[in-house]
């Protein structure tokens, strides 16, 4: 049964609704320039009200953009980041120095994941494009331990359900597909997605 991750939460009301309805992972964006970036104060406010059974994720975007001062104040269970440039475990350790939570590496679907040595990555989030085909999905499933994979794809429910049958990921992440307006969740639609994905 896939868990559900909602990415880019921007306000406390949406965070409460998501947690009440059983979302396992909730992320806030601290990435400079990201459409759903929130202030550190808002991120702490959102994460501070979430129950212990909901995993709190701070998404920093590219690893080179992680701000040490911000990182020290974040009270998250996971840090999410991309490493599309140097693919350097040493840089990641330097940027995340002092952080003791889990790590989520965000990558394009099907991309090769670098060998980071003893740097422990809790989950890999593969961002899948709308035109990805079933053969490509099967290749992902064959190459990876799917219990450590989160799939990000803003698709219709029928397609998500079909792809979950193929991949059997740890979680499926949605973002704008459950919005009624930018930065605001459509609650009936969110509940439908949570219910249908959780029943798989």
What's a quick, concise take on this entry?
The chain has 200 residues and is α/β, with parallel strands linked by helices. The protein has helices at 12-20, 40-49, 68-73, 89-95, 134-143, 157-167, 187-198; strands at residues 3-6, 25-29, 55-62, 78-82, 102-108, 123-127, 149-152, 171-174, 179-181, 184-185. The radius of gyration is 16 Å and the shape is globular.
Task: Detail the topology: elements first, then pairings.
Layout: E1 3-6, H1 12-20, E2 25-29, H2 40-49, E3 55-62, H3 68-73, E4 78-82, H4 89-95, E5 102-108, E6 123-127, H5 134-143, E7 149-152, H6 157-167, E8 171-174, E9 179-181, E10 184-185, H7 187-198
Parallel strand pairs: 1-2, 1-8, 2-3, 3-4, 4-5, 5-6, 6-7, 7-8
Antiparallel strand pairs: 9-10
């Amino acid at each position: 049964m896939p868990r559900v991750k909602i990415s880019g939460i921007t306000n406390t009301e949406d965070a409460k609704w998501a947690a009440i309805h059983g979302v396992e992972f909730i992320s806030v964006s601290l990435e400079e320039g990201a459409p759903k970036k929130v202030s550190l104060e808002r991120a702490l406010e959102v994460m501070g009200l979430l129950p212990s059974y909901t995993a709190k994720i701070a998404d920093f975007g590219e690893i080179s953009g992680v701000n040490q001062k911000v990182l020290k104040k974040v009270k998250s269970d996971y840090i999410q980041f991309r490493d599309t440039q140097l693919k350097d475990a040493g840089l990641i350790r330097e940027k995340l120095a002092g952080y003791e939570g889990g790590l989520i590496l965000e990558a394009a679907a099907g991309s090769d994941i670098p060998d980071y040595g003893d740097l422990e990555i809790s989950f890999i989030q593969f961002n899948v494009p709308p035109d990805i085909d079933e053969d490509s999905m099967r290749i992902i499933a064959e190459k990876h331990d799917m219990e450590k994979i989160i799939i990000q794809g803003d698709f219709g429910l029928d397609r998500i359900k079909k792809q979950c049958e193929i991949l059997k990921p740890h979680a499926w992440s949605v973002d704008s597909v459950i919005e009624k307006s930018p930065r605001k969740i459509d609650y009936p639609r969110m509940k439908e997605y949570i219910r249908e994905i959780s029943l798989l």
